C-alpha cells in the first residue's frame, strides 16, 4: 500500500481558506471629550476595530488647543487614504456624523453603529 505524500503529484492540494484583507481605518479620540478615559477609549477603539475586520493604522489625538479637532482628524485620515474612521461615541464628532460622512464611513464603539459615507468615489 502506497501513501500519498505532499510531494506526490496525485495527492490533493492542502485545504486552504481565503482570508479577506482587513479594511484600513483610523481611530479618533478627543481628550477634551474623553477626559481621563482617553486611554481606555483608545483601547476600546482598537479592540472594536480588530473584532470587526478593520486594520487600525493610527489613532488620532488632536492637540487640546487645536481650533478644529474634527478637521484635524479628517485631514490625517485623508492623508492616509483610509475609508473608515472609528470613534468611541458620537460626542467625538460633536454628535454630527455628517461632518465625517462626506468622505468616510463612521463607526462608533458605543453604541456599535456604522454611518456610511454619503459621497461615492468617482461620482
Output the keywords.
single chain; 123 residues; alpha/beta; Rossmann fold; five-stranded mixed beta sheet; 5 strands; 20% strand; Resolvase/invertase-type recombinase catalytic domain-containing protein
Helix content: 25-40%
Percent strand equals 15-25%
Number of strands: 5
CATH H-tier superfamily: Resolvase, N-terminal catalytic domain
CATH class: Alpha Beta
Tell me the CATH architecture: 3-Layer(aba) Sandwich
What do we call the CATH topology?
Rossmann fold
Give the number of helices.
Answer: 4
Give me the strand/helix succession.
EHHEHEHEE
Low-confidence stretches: none
Region (Disordered): 1-22
Protein name: Resolvase/invertase-type recombinase catalytic domain-containing protein
Organism: Nocardia aurantia
Summarize the structure.
With 123 residues, this protein is α/β, with parallel strands linked by helices. Helix content is 28%, strand content 20%.
Structure description:
The protein has a single domain, classed as Resolvase, N-terminal catalytic domain (Rossmann fold, 3-Layer(aba) Sandwich), CATH 3.40.50. It contains four helices and five strands; from the N terminus they run βααβαβαββ. It has helices at residues 31-34, 38-51, 69-80, 98-101, and strands at 23-28, 54-60, 84-87, 105-108, 113-115. The protein has a five-stranded mixed beta sheet. The protein starts with 22 loop residues before the first strand and ends in an 8-residue tail after the last strand. Residues 1-22 are annotated as: Disordered.
Set down the secondary structure blueprint.
Blueprint lengths: L22 E6 L2 H4 L3 H14 L2 E7 L8 H12 L3 E4 L10 H4 L3 E4 L4 E3 L8
Parallel strand pairs: 1-2, 1-3, 3-4
Antiparallel strand pairs: 4-5
Amino acid at each position: 500500500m502506497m501513501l500519498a505524500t505532499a510531494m506526490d503529484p496525485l495527492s490533493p492540494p492542502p485545504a486552504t481558506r481565503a482570508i479577506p484583507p482587513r479594511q484600513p481605518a483610523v481611530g479618533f479620540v478627543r481628550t477634551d471629550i474623553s477626559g481621563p478615559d482617553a486611554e481606555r477609549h483608545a483601547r476600546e477603539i482598537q479592540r472594536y476595530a480588530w473584532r470587526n475586520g478593520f486594520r487600525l493604522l493610527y489613532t488620532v489625538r488632536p492637540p487640546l488647543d487645536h481650533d478644529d479637532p474634527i478637521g484635524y482628524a479628517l485631514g490625517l485620515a485623508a492623508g492616509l487614504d483610509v475609508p473608515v474612521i472609528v470613534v468611541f461615541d458620537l460626542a467625538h464628532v460633536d454628535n454630527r456624523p455628517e461632518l465625517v460622512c462626506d468622505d468616510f464611513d463612521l463607526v462608533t464603539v458605543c453604541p456599535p453603529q456604522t454611518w456610511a459615507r454619503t459621497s461615492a468615489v468617482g461620482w
